[in-house]
Amino acid sequence: MGTIEAHTRRSEFAGFEAGAWLFVRLVLGAEWVRGGLEKVGQAGWTEPPLGRSVSGFLKGAIAKSTEGAHPEVPHWYHTVAEQVLLPNAELLGILVSYGEVLVGIALVLGFLTRIAALGGVTMNLAFLWAGTTSTNPPMLLLGVALVLFGTEAGRFGLDRWVIPQAEAWLPPGFGRVLPSVMLGLAVIAAGALALAVTDTATWAGLLAFTLIATIGATWRHRSL
């Protein structure tokens, strides 16, 4: 009886959790849709002159990166904006406009919810690094929560059918390989970020400390 009761309580809590995530999804998704629809069909975003709005936004961010010793926009973002983003302003305007709408719709429908939330997190971070706050901090918080903890986020949505089908199509062992791939990408991104925001000596010190800690922990584990 105890096992049955515990299972029942877990099921009831899972339903409550899914309902709470549904509320989060709807709020966050509606905000993404609203923001995207304000851009779709507008001059400078998806209509000529293409790229004008993105160019103005990025030039403003570049200007902020030169203000004082601790600027609102980091120096490394200045370089990325100038060399990578500005030359592709037209494409970025279209991607951001329709990307916001698609992320919002996916969240509202509960379709690949955590992947959609990750797309939203990426855009929020890009906007914040450019020195724009607005609604980005709370949206970023909700998006990160969905990505990290939203295992039940799509239960009241299309993921209830989509995820089982996707798992059936994936090759055996994919679930074990994916975390390793993500870890590798995270390490590469962390290394690139460390080089961008610190000097070489600091970066080398961080790397050396990480290696020493890892080797020490591995050796201690094997000696137990």
Record the SSE blueprint:
Blueprint: H1 2-37, H2 52-64, H3 75-85, H4 89-109, H5 113-129, H6 136-149, H7 159-169, H8 174-197, H9 200-223
Helix pairs in contact: 1-4, 1-6, 2-3, 2-4, 4-5, 5-6
- Give the rounded overall mean pLDDT: 84
Order of secondary-structure elements: HHHHHHHHH
Structural class: mainly alpha
Number of domains: 2
Rg of Cα set: 22 Å
Q: Helicity level, as a percent range? A: over 70%
Largest sheet: none
What can you see in these coordinates?
With 224 residues, this protein is mainly α. The chain is 76% helix and 0% strand. It folds into 2 domains: 2-169, no CATH class; 170-224. The chain contains 9 helices and no strands. Helix 4 (89-109) crosses helix 5 and helix 5 (113-129) packs antiparallel against helix 6 (136-149).
Top keywords for this entry?
224 residues, mainly alpha, 0% strand
Provide a short characterization of the protein structure.
The chain is an all-alpha fold and 224 residues long. The protein is 76% helix and 0% strand.
